[in-house]
Amino acid sequence: MIKKSLATAALLLVGLAQGQTLRVGLAEDPDVLDPTLARTFVGRLVFSALCDKLVDVDEKLTIVPQLAQSYEWSADSKALTMKIRPGVTFHDGEKLDAAAVKFNLDRHKTMPGSNRRGELNPVTSIDVVDPMTVRLNLSAPFAPLLAILSDRAGMMVSPKAAQAAGDKFGLKPVCSGAFKFVERVAQDRITLERYDGYWNKAAINFAKVTYTPIPDATVRLANLKSGQLDFIERIASSDVEKLEIEKKFKVSRITEIGYQGITINIGKSDKAQQNPLGRDPRVREAFELALDRQGLAQVVMDNEAKVGNQWVSPTNTYYAKNVPVPKRDVEKARALLKAAGVPNPSFTLVTPTTSDAQRIALVIQAMTRDAGFDVKIQSAEFATSLNMADKGDFDAYVLAWSGRPDPDGNLYSFHGCKQPLNYAGYCNADTDKLLDQSRAERDPAKRKKLFEQITAQIMKERPVIYLYHRNWLWAYNPKLSGVREIPDGLLRVSGLKLAP
Amino acid sequence: MARLTASPSRLAWRRFARRRAALLGVAIVLSFIVLALGASWIAPLDPIATSWGAIRKAPSAAHWFGTDEIGRDVLSRVIWGTRASLLAGVVSVSISLLLGVPIGLAAGFMGGAVDTVISRITDAFLACPFLILAIALAAFLGPSLSNAMIAIGVSATPIFVRLTRAQVINVKVEDYIEAARAVGNPPWRIALRHVLPNITAPLIVQATLAIAAAVIAEASLSFLGLGQQPPAPSWGSMLNTAKNYVDNAPWMAIWPGLSIFLLVLAFNLVGDGLRDALDPRQR
Amino acid sequence: MFEFLLKRIASIIPTLVVVSMLIFGLQQLLPGDPAKILAGEEQDPTVVAYLRAKLHLDEPLPVRYGYWIGGVLQGDLGESVRTQQPVLTLVLKKLPVTVELALLAMTIALLIGIPAGIVSAVGRGTVWDTVANVMALWGISTPNFWLGILMIMLFSVQLGWLPASGYVSPFEDLGANLAAMIMPAFVLGNAIAAVLMRHTRSAMLQVMSADYVRTARAKGLSERVVVLKHALRNALTPIITLGALELGTLLSGAVLTEQVFTIPGFGKLIVDSVFNRDYAVVQGVVLVTATTYIVLNLLADLAYFAANPRLRS
Asked: Is residue A298 within 8 angstroms of chain B, CB to CB?
């Protein structure tokens, strides 16, 4: 009798678990749900449940297989052969095979408006070796390739659905992830439901996942507290203390792979020459010395950030130890300014209108005043600031970058001559040579040496002053287990469980 | 020669004073004006002085209203912020009046094609939600207090155009206007010397109420990041920052919120009182 | 009368044309290159060029206006460049949400404003006047986004009585829908309540000194009967026509209220689209809003006309 009721209870529990919905709160509204066209960080959170990719990264940023079961570089490192996991199907039932992978990579490279084209530039062609094996041919060895395939460029959509929908695919995406697309009400909710044909079905414990964008952090947290959401991303650093004291919700913190920094116009436009900060590297050095990075992290982020001075955090394998984080030295700063002949340099710091960025600007203004700097703050909403950055119509501005698993993703586009994100206007032929070398070098030890050289080189000019690496701060229902703290800030649904 | 009855303005004042609510409003507005003008003497501390050690401290003897997210004294910021909010209200409405009244006069007085064109354009403006116009203009001009004031002022202009025009049409047919015309006065003279003085009453009422709305509009624009920029204080931008700390530092929001509420309420009460006092139907 | 009607209806068209030009022009004023904004984090120059061509950004202003208006007249309001959803679909999905919010807000406004106006008029000059005044005015005196956040903190987080957000369609679950809408409707309705209070008050005052009311009083009817039966009935006409006209204010207020309460209506859509430079969305939504407003105005005018025989001649 007891056995029977226990069994019933167990079945009920299983049934309950099987019928559960995971409700996630996002900090922004994702853009188009097409991996080829997508362009926001927050969209990737949805993709992590909707679209599987060739490879993934783990907590240590090591590449792990997902849709590609194994991979092998050729001897000259100019080709990557990948074996596709057997038995995987898309949400519409189509098989995922080598032909499908080739279709997707071609789509990423050639579809008009594709945001993956630049990422996959080094891939010249894709060969179908056999029904379950593809080979990516490269123009030159390209170390960041696997890291790139762990993001949207490695996501696979159903060729049949993509061909049928053309560029409207994003309205009803058909992928091969754990959950399939049900509906999207713009700015309200994205609803996904479990895909029964998922290859890793056993790890999935929810029937549905909903993503609700709630831009205001206070309201987002209120929703978690009132029980309407199970998980929220990017809580305000000022809310962490209270949450940890109250112990009603779990808090996760992971240092990001991106950074927060200040870009200085050193050559993007004529404006660089008109301001001592852009003109004279000594002034920039003085500026950096006048900063107390720990103090910044304390005041702006309530210490929920790791102080740094490079595009990767000090705990990253590729951090160049030969260029350590400088300590604040106001005396030296003043001496440098005197030597440069500008004891009281003045410049305008452009900041986006987010409260974080504004706080940074305010604190920097106060801190650097001690060394003689007169920082003026100008707020510009995102669209305008992008325009200013593009035209070089600025002295300095506060910028953040969400980060990529391979350091090349934080580096090349920013410091390579004339690269799209090189708003500082830094251009050095030697650095470019080293950058290309670092891309082609697959051996981690040799690569590290190259990065050390690159860092020393770039930091002489200080086109960007890196401040710190923020913590991704998540808060969630304590009954939720299996939350993996991966530094890219994306929640993975495999292995997540919500106790009833 | 003695007057048998009090002059119209005297009567209006008496009617105004009869409503206690209106007097309360005037008292509050005057207090805020005093605060705004005397901020440098009244405020205990520097409103932009940061203090790393005193971040988000609750109200205490040293800081009566507490400190904000980078250690600034909330009380001093509230006092200094009075200027921004009063300016936001008064300057915006002044812009609306300076633009709206002449246009409305022209439309109402000249009639015909001029009226039609102006009316259609005004209708179009009024059909767009006010805040959207303000946001678009503020985004175009760039985030700053002065640009926010211009944006609000321009967005509110159609209201005054329409009001002025309606009043002018009413007054146009009065005898004294006919008389002025018969004497040979040029139209602009009639408009300025005879029409305008007789339509000021509803304009004053609407202007007072518009100041209240403009203060709120500045706060709304600041909520979206388009108003007063750091480090200068304004109640709206203080609320915008404070909303992130409602849970752990509520004093950051209570005081600016209360100040906005009192000031706007006061202007509303005064406006209502003026409407009562100047309403011709009450004579 | 028909002449007046026809004239009024005919005047809508030039107004709408001006609205379309106004909102189109405003969008173009906004600084920044929409192609760059929409090109996302990576800022690939090929993508930027592609978007510029797709959005006809390099063509002269009148041509772009022509493209847009041509589409509108055929029922195609363009699509959101950010999410590719057709603007018309967005509008049709979100219009009912904002309409429901507006109707609920209006109901609350009537429930607060009219009694307050009556009390204020009847008790003119007394403390009830001030009380009623403050009660109705406090809504218009507080920024609605601020009031919204306070209410969420109190009713959702502290007391747990109401959900902090999460719109549910009334056809899906009416109870949940009302639970989610009651706070934003209250926040919005407060502001309108003040306007309604004022108008009720002045209409009542006007009417209360009118002849037929004096007659009713002379007849010996109780003050309450006088007020409720005679005065109020006659004061209601202008109040109700006013309700339709307050739609503009409601939509303005909805912009921030929807943001705070995460209600997927027009207001939130417009703000986000302005900041994302999603031109087509802003233009489409404002055009629909403006048209609705103008049509409602027309209906209000007609109702006023119909209710007042004296104006007909």
From this structure: yes
